[in-house]
Amino acid sequence: LGLALDHPELAITVDRNGGIDTGIHLAGAESQVALSIAQARIEDGTVRVTDAGAGRIYAVDGLAGDLTVGAIGGPFGFSGRGRLAGQDFSLRINASALDPHGTTQVTAFAQPQSKAYTVNLQGALATAGVPHLTGELDYRQAPLANNPNGIIGALTFSTRLDMTPEKGLLSSFVLVPDENRGATRLAGSATIERSGNVVATA
Fold it and tell me: CA 132, CA 94: separation in Å to the nearest integer?
């Protein structure tokens, strides 16, 4: 089945206790309901996240690309582009079928149109109850031309992730300002609170 979705919108609400409501209830691995979309073309879509506890709204708009759905409980895939805070990004997101415990394996990639940096994420997302993501994140930033500090290699940042809507732990992170000078690095851990506060230990 092929579909064309024009101006679709997904509204996500994070309540004060960290629970998430999307209005969509995914079937688990035991579901007998069959649905398969080989390819759906999305044009000018929007994903809006309302954080009731922090009083903030985040939006990714201008979404355009190809969506695939293997079944009601996944796998899912999206490849295309979107706009965040006025900046255009290339996006790729894939999620495996939910296992009997409601957990899916996810991978995500984002890169701004300027190609100044890339972000890659992979891990396990538990969807039963309060969502919980554990995995790894890699960030790579291209060096500036004629860098005044003599940096000629990319800046890299890699870390383990343990995140819920309430708090995120970046454990065992490694920051390398110039990958051509790998001996110079900063290692540590950090906690990102829902309020936006960051507590780091190097």
Answer: 17
Measure the CA–CA gap between 191 and 124, rounded to whole angstroms.
Answer: 19
pLDDT of 29 above 70:
no
First-to-final CA distance of the chain = 51
Please choose, from the candidates 171, 101, 157, 106, the residue with its C-alpha nearest in 3D space to the C-alpha of residue 133: 106
Q: Hey, what are 167's tokens?
A: 């708090």
Cβ atoms of 183 and 174 within 8 Å: the answer is no
Cα 175 from Cα 157, distance rounded (Å): 4
Where does 24-154 show beta strands of DSSP type E? 37-51, 56-69, 76-84, 87-95, 103-112, 117-126, 132-141
Q: How far apart are CA 135 and CA 84, in angstroms?
A: 23
Whether the Cβ atoms of residue 73 and residue 27 lie closer than 8 Å to each other: yes
DSSP state for residue 96 in the 8-state scheme:
P
Distance of CA 160 to the CA centre of its chain: 14
Report the distance separating Cα 118 and Cα 60, nearest Å. Answer: 17
- Beta carbons of 122 and 96 less than 8 angstroms apart: no
Tell me phi and psi for residue 180, to 5 degrees: -80, -5
Q: Which two tokens stand for residue 63?
A: 């979404």
Task: Kindly report, residue by residue over 100-118, the tens digit of the pLDDT.
Answer: 998 999 999 999 999 999 9
> DSSP code of 98?
P
Query: What does the alpha-carbon distance between residue 80 and residue 78 come to, in Å, rounded to a whole number?
Result: 7
